[in-house]
Amino acid sequence: MVDKFDKKLPSLFIASLLFIGGIILLSLKITGWSLFLGLPATQIGLVLLIFSFDSFGRKKETEGDYHLIPCLLCHRQTLTPKYIDKKICESCQVKIAQRVKVAFLALYVLAIIPLSLSLVGKRQEIRMKAKEIAPVPTKGGPTPATCETGFWEPDSCRCGEWNENINCPEEKEGRTCDFNEYCCQFNEDHRWDCQPL
């Protein structure tokens, strides 16, 4: 068992290093590179860890005399080479490997779900910001409407152009919205009320 563990130690080390390094890269949130390098490193490390732990459950045939010793976990008699005094039976090794697989899978899912939700939220936020950005004016064409924040009545007046040439009372400001002229006033309830001319 000790020889078997010594042979698997480098692969366990590399797999753990990849898995932990991938998680660290994902947590650093470096634009582009965290996802580009972090996700593959985490996935490859997880797969290598599963294969490394899976190999512990496989039986290795050795030559020599055998004797029966009790398993350290289930206390069933296990046939082992004469020079081994303590051993975990194959069925317990398989159970341990399966539990470790499930634990790593749960950890992977718990790491991926928040990351996916975060990415979806950022995508929606970018789309909302893109809608608010005014289009670039074209040469010789009309000046595009700029969209203001806040509450507007009617809502179509949120995107428009302030126009000083519109004859409005002193407390109101002229605004062109949807090719119509309005007189707008900011009320005490923090709302713009626009009345068509």
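That was protein one. Protein two is written in the same sequence-then-structure order:
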Amino acid sequence: MAIFSIQIGAYLEEDDDLNQPTFKFRDQGSSQSGAIQEIHFSAKKIILTFRDSDLFLEKYKTVELLLDQPVNRKMVDFFANHLFLASFISWRNNSL
């Protein structure tokens, strides 16, 4: 199992780049800030899609987070309101 994390910092500046979350794979050296294109929620999976011009770790278009429980409103709320990524969220079947 690989370790993937998302870190957010809040800045007073209205610079969107500064307020983007940092996505990390394993350690600080394997991370990048922002560049998210879409966050797709399905039954037990969250798919992060990165912009073509700024792939994750210069290699990956998507990162799949496989969950051991179904996606629920609390998870979506976390991405939307705590990570400030509401404009990137999509899901199927309106099951949330």
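The longest strand covers residues 27-33. Keep this in mind for the problem set.
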